[in-house]
Amino acid sequence: MSAARPVLVVLYKDDLPDCMPLIEAAAEVRYVRAAELATAIPGADALLLWDFFSSAVEDVWAHADSLRWIHVAAAGVDKLLFDGLRQSGVVVTNSRGIFDRPIAEFVLGGILAMAKDLPGSLRRQRDGVWEHRETDRIDNANALIVGTGSIGRETARLLRAVGMRIEGVGRTARTNDADFGTVHASADIESVVGEHDYVVLIAPLTDATRGLVDASVLAAMKPSARLINVGRGELVHEGALADALSQGVIAGAALDVFSTEPLPATSPLWRLENVLISAHLSGDAAGWLERLSALFADNFGRYTAGAELLNVVDKELGFVPGG
C-alpha cells in the first residue's frame, strides 16, 4: 500500500459504483476506461474491475509496478486470469455470493418454462391457436448440477425445495455432500448424464471445464433431457449443441451464456424452437449493481485496515475454493 493514501484505479465502461464517494475519502482514485488503463496503472495499489468482462489488464501488465490487489465485480474471473497475474503476488478477489439466489431462481424458471412448454403457449397465443396438450411435472425429476460452488449449492437447495432429485459434478467425486448428496468427478460426466432429466451448467470456466459438454456428452443424455447453461458459453461445444438440438438428440435447452456475446445473428440457435435464449442476465436481478458496490466497499475497508479480504480467488484453480 502507498505510504499515504492507497491509489485505486477503477476500470469502468458506463456507470460507476455508487460507493465511490466513500472510497474517495480514503484513497486516491483514478477513473479510466480500457484505452486509458496503461497510463493510470503505474503506481496503483489496487484495481477495481467494474468493467468486469474487460481483458485489458493483461495488455498493461508491464506497467503494473505497484499493484497488490484486484477486485472483479463478477463471480467468474476467466476473462482476467493470465500467466503473469497467476505467477505474481497480486491478490484477486471476486463478487461471489451476489449472484447465487438470482441465478438459482433463473435456473428454476428455465426448468419450469421448458417443463410447462411456456414458449409453445406463447407461440400459440401469438398465432391465435387453441391447442390442448400435456406438460411435464418437475417433482421427482433428476437434475445434474455441474459446478458445486456457492451458486451451484444455492441452485441445488432451491431445486430440492420443489421436489427435484439432485446430484452434482465437481473436480473430485464424493458422497454424503450436504447439498448434492452424490458429487461425480468432472471426468465421469459422460457416464452419468444419461440418468438425468436436466443438466445445469454453473461451473467456472477453467482449463478443466472448457468444452466439458461436447458431442459425446450430449449423445449420452436422454432424448427427453434439457440442458441449462448459466455458467460460461465455452463450457459447451456450441456447434455440437446446435446439432443435438436440431436433430432431437436432446429435447431442449435454456442458454444464458455463449462463446461469442452478443450471440451472432448467424447462429443456428436463434432459429430453434426448442431453445430459450437470454442475454447473459441470469444473475442480474434488480439491485445487483448496488450489491456489487457494497461488497467492494466492504472489501476495500478490509484492505485499508489490513484485514482478511473476502472472496480470495485461487489463481491456479480459477475460483474461490470452498462450498
Commentary on this structure:
The protein is of the alpha/beta class. It has 2 domains: 7-98 and 287-305, 3-Layer(aba) Sandwich (Rossmann fold); 100-277, Rossmann fold (3-Layer(aba) Sandwich), CATH 3.40.50. The protein has helices at residues 20-24, 37-40, 56-59, 83-86, 100-115, 118-127, 150-161, 189-192, 215-220, 238-246, 288-305, and strands at 7-11, 28-32, 46-49, 69-72, 91-93, 142-146, 165-170, 174-177, 181-185, 198-201, 226-229, 252-255, 275-277. The protein has an 8-stranded mixed beta sheet, covered by helices on one side. Strands 2-1-3-4-5 form a 5-stranded parallel beta sheet, with no helix packed on it. Helix 5 packs across helix 7. The model has no long low-confidence stretch (mean pLDDT 97). Belongs to the D-isomer specific 2-hydroxyacid dehydrogenase family. It holds the Pfam family 2-Hacid_dh.
Q: Could you state the CATH homologous superfamily of the largest domain? A: NAD(P)-binding Rossmann-like Domain
Radius of gyration: 21 Å
Strand order of the largest sheet: 8-9-7-6-10-11-12-13
CATH architecture of the largest domain: 3-Layer(aba) Sandwich
The overall pLDDT, averaged over residues, is 97
- Structure class: alpha/beta
Distance, first to last CA: 31 Å
Helices, by number, come to 11
Approximate strand percentage = 15-25%
Helix fraction, binned, reads 25-40%
Q: Which geometry do the CA atoms define?
A: elongated
Low-pLDDT ranges: none
And the CATH topology of the largest domain?
Rossmann fold
Order of helices and strands: EHEHEHEHEHHEHEEEHEHEHEEH
Count of strand segments: 13
Give the number of domains: 2
CATH class of the largest domain: Alpha Beta
The main sheet comes to:
8 strands, mixed
Domain D-isomer specific 2-hydroxyacid dehydrogenase NAD-binding: 109-282
Organism: Cryobacterium roopkundense
GO molecular function: NAD binding; oxidoreductase activity, acting on the CH-OH group of donors, NAD or NADP as acceptor
Family: Belongs to the D-isomer specific 2-hydroxyacid dehydrogenase family.
